Structures are given as C-alpha cells and as structure tokens.
Amino acid sequence: MKEHILLVEPMMKSIEDRLDAAYTVHRLYDPAEATAIEAALPSIRAVATGGASGLSNAWIERLPRLGIIAINGVGTDKVDLSFARSRNIHVTTTPGVLTDDVADMGIALLLAVLRRIPEGDRMVREGRWAGGELFPLGRSPKGKRIGIVGLGQIGRALGERAEAFGMAVRYWNRSNITDTAWVRHETLVELARDSDILAVCIAASPATQSIVNADVLSALGPTGILVNVARGSVVDEDALLAALNAGTIAGAGLDVFVSEPRIREDFYRAPNTVLMPHQGSATIETREAMGELVLANIAAYLAGEQPPTVVN
Ligand code: 8YV
C-alpha cells in the first residue's frame, strides 16, 4: 500500500514523477482533486509545500496522521513551528542548496536597477532606439556601499558577490557574528545611513516584521536602492511605495512581496523598480537539489528515521 502525501504547490516534473512513483500524491492546487483530498485526509502522513505557501494550523488540524511538513525552501514563516512540534510533526527545509541562486538574484536585481535593464529592453523592442531616442545613463556598482540586512548564508553569499563588483560590504544582524571583517552596524537606521544599497536577506518572523520601515528608508536616502530577496513582510510596503513615489529613495529590486502573487498594484507603477515573481531559488539545478532534499526528508520519516534537515 502506498502512503498518501499532500502536495501544496507544484514541484519540478522530475521530482513529482518520483513522488508519484513512491506515493499516492494529492495535489492541493488542483481543484479537480478536492473531493478525493477530503476522503484522503485521515490517511495523509506527509505534506510537501513551498516556503511561501507553508501549511496553516487549520490544515494541520485536518490531518490527524500528519508527521512531516517538508518545505521545498528555507523560509519557515508560513508554518507555525511550535504548533507543529506540539503535535510531534517534523518540519524540514532545504538549507544550503539554494544559497547561491538567491544571492545571484540579489545581484541581478541590483544590476537591473542600476543599469535600467527592463527599461532598455522595452526601449529597444518598441523601436524607440531605432527612432533616435537617447537612453539615460545608469549607475555603477563599483565603489558603492552595500548594507546586508541579515548575515546568514544568503547574506554572506550576496556580500561576497558584491565585493567582486567592487562594493564595500557592511551589515546588520540580530545576533553577534565574529567570523567576518565586514563592518557591523548596531541598528538598521545606521546601516541604511551608511549604505548606497540595502539588501534584505533576513528570515521573516514576528521579530523581523516591517523592520525595514519609513525611518530606515529615509536613512537610505534619495540615491539609495533597496533590494529584497527575503520576504515581503520584512519591509513596510506602505513606506516603500511612498518612498519610491516621492523619490526619497532612488529605486528598488524586489523578488518578494507581502501578498504575492496578488501584490499591491501600486508596485506595477512604482518608478525605478524592477519586479520579479519570487524566483530566487527558481533554477533547474537548484530546484532539483531542493526536490532531492524534500524526497529524502519524506522517505526518512516514512521509514521511521530522523529526517535529515529537520528544523523544529
Ligand atoms: C521558493 C522560498 O521559491 O526558500 C524559500 O523559503 O521562498 C523559495 O526558495 C519556495 O519555497 C518554492 O515555493
């Protein structure tokens, strides 16, 4: 008898094929499966989900035999870890394997804003270059100061890449870090004041909710750029939209938003802003590696073993 698992959002086909081969997979995102899922609730022992989707407590309560929530990502902000623990449910993530791609996305967004890549692409396609239109000058990353908000694995990888572009790195981190020569600031406002680019890499939690607020953005200043590859909730979106529209910061490169994918439409019109649909870890190579970890965690749990990358 195959075990039943619930898949909250799609994964790579090669990974889903292996899930299908090993388990009876119920796809929560497929409306056609709704009735079958209702009937299978008492049998489901494992859930695979994404970092931005997680699993609500209401869903956890509907799954009496659930023993593992395998997150295909590193963010745990959409799963109540202590509630899961109180029910003896393992929560696992995919640490390490997505670090480089998310850091790359931070650099890509930064360069896209500095060099106006989406704007140039539009100008060429619309024939305005051929028509003689001049393109405004961009700005160089070299010699600029980048302030990293949250010096975890992704923050460090982004800092290392920024150094290769000739940037000076400084950071703010909640806990003290000893093994880096980068300048540490005591507060986010101080970091923003001492940065040309502020790069948000910190995990979302109640403690980091809206920590990039109006004061931080005002300290970043009218030539400053905000990059966010972490979670929308870390940034006060009212303050960010106001700062972009008033020109109190110069621009933003954003991969994540509070209410994604139905983000606030004001972002569609925000000046000097490059938007991505949460693609930090979304490469074939990385999603394969993440999928392997999800498969390994679920297999270990169902075999009665400790899942390899459990976080709670
Ligand atoms: C993924 C993420 O896009 O790691 C995370 O927490 O948000 C991303 O890597 C997501 O988990 C896939 O849905």
Mean pLDDT: 98
Low-confidence stretches: none
Q: How many strands, which pairing sense, and closed or not: the largest β-sheet? A: 7 strands, parallel
Total individual domains: 2
The secondary-structure element order is EHEHEHEHEHHEHEEHEHEHEEH
What would the principal axes of the Cα set say about the shape? globular
Q: Could you tell me which ligands this complex binds, including any ions or cofactors?
A: 2-keto-D-gluconic acid
CATH topology type of the largest domain = Rossmann fold
Please give the CATH class of the largest domain: Alpha Beta
> Which percent band covers the strand fraction?
15-25%
CATH superfamily of the largest domain: NAD(P)-binding Rossmann-like Domain
| CATH second-level architecture of the largest domain | 3-Layer(aba) Sandwich
Total beta strands: 12
Estimated helix fraction? 25-40%
What structural category do the secondary elements indicate?
Answer: alpha/beta
Strand sequence of the main sheet, in spatial order?
A: 8-7-6-9-10-11-12
User: How large is the count of helical segments?
Assistant: 11
Evaluate the radius of gyration: 21 Å
Q: What is the distance, rounded to the nearest whole angstrom, between the alpha carbons of the first and last residues?
A: 29 Å
